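hiii so um. not sure if this is the right channel but i have a protein structure encoded as tokens and i wanna go backwards to a sequence. like what aa goes where. can anyone help
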């Protein structure tokens, strides 16, 4: 996730890895550059080994050591967003490679997809830790990516005439749509605790959920875009009030965050930029992107940023920063000049 030893981010996170490789898949589709294909082959090989690894929480294990050995220290586990994010990548990879690399697609990629689908349908109704690895319960972000992966697997199955656990997959898809509706009030509830109590509302993971499901049309039928905008507005107001010099709609994770005193997060700010760009609020999105680009001339971007003191904090060169920056630019490129 980052080269930093302090905080200890020098591990491979299933979620972070999936988000970074989503960019590489995208670039391979656009360019057919063999250097991207080489990276993707390594990704497929490594994920096969990771899925077979004897970790504490199975496919819900959030991170592993860089030598692919299990990380068995104390941590927030399981985290059930990793398998659907990886599954989405593998479905896209299969669609991309099946004609040219049939053997790899059917013998290696397809089994990865099946294992991730199995994990989702066996665990979608069980509590887990959230995106931020802090709260245990049921989470909007996790349910969104599970829903999206199941939806794409249904489309994938129809395309290739696959009947893998069809009835169960269809049932889970319907139930996930229903569970997403539980998160709706005047805006969006981010997390429920184990006993169903609301434990978090205004949370940037809600916006990241929309970005990481590619603004799915069915999701936006369930949860109207105005509710995502409302979350963005609430977070923007909080973080503008926190700083003297935050004139650019930069946001952190959630209100009253205590980790490194809860400063601006690059990934959260760029997710907000994507939300505004998607919804044609181009000026705000462009301002956020330009500010992020101005933080460091070498584009060395840490996890957090104190906008008043112009100080980067927490993990150095967070890989996830760059995947959000890439997809922000991708949306930006669609703006008419």
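sure thing!! here u go:
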């Amino acid at each position: 996730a980052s080269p930093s030893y302090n905080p200890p981010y020098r591990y491979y996170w299933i979620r972070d890895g999936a988000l970074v490789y989503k960019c590489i898949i995208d670039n391979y589709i656009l360019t057919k550059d063999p250097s991207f294909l080489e990276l993707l082959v390594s990704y497929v090989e490594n994920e096969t080994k990771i899925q077979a690894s004897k970790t504490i929480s199975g496919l819900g294990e959030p991170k592993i050591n860089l030598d692919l050995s299990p990380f068995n220290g104390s941590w927030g586990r399981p985290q059930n967003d990793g398998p659907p994010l990886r599954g989405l990548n593998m479905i896209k990879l299969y669609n991309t490679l099946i004609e040219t690399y049939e053997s790899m697609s059917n013998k290696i990629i397809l089994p990865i997809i099946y294992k991730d689908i199995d994990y989702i349908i066996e665990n979608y109704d069980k509590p887990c830790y959230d995106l931020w690895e802090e709260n245990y319960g049921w989470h909007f972000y996790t349910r969104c990516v599970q829903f999206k992966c199941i939806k794409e697997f249904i489309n994938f199955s129809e395309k290739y005439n696959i009947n893998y656990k069809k009835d169960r997959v269809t049932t889970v898809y319907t139930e996930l749509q229903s569970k997403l509706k539980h998160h709706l009030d005047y805006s969006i509830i981010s997390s429920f605790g184990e006993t169903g109590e609301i434990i978090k509302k205004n949370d940037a993971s809600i916006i990241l959920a929309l970005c990481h499901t590619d603004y799915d049309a069915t999701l936006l039928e369930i949860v109207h875009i105005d509710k995502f905008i409302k979350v963005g507005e609430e977070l923007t107001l909080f973080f503008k009030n926190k700083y003297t010099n935050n004139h650019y709609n930069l946001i952190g994770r959630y209100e009253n965050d205590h980790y490194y005193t809860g400063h601006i997060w690059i990934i959260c700010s760029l997710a907000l930029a994507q939300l505004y760009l998607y919804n044609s609020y181009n000026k705000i999105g462009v301002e956020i992107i330009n500010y992020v680009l101005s933080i460091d001339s070498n584009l060395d971007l840490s996890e957090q940023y104190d906008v008043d003191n112009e100080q980067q904090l927490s993990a150095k060169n967070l890989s996830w920063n760059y995947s959000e920056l890439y997809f922000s630019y991708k949306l930006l490129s669609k703006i008419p000049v």
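oh and The beta strands are 12-13, 63-64, 128-129, 136-139, 191-192, 198-200, 264-265, 304-306, 311-313.
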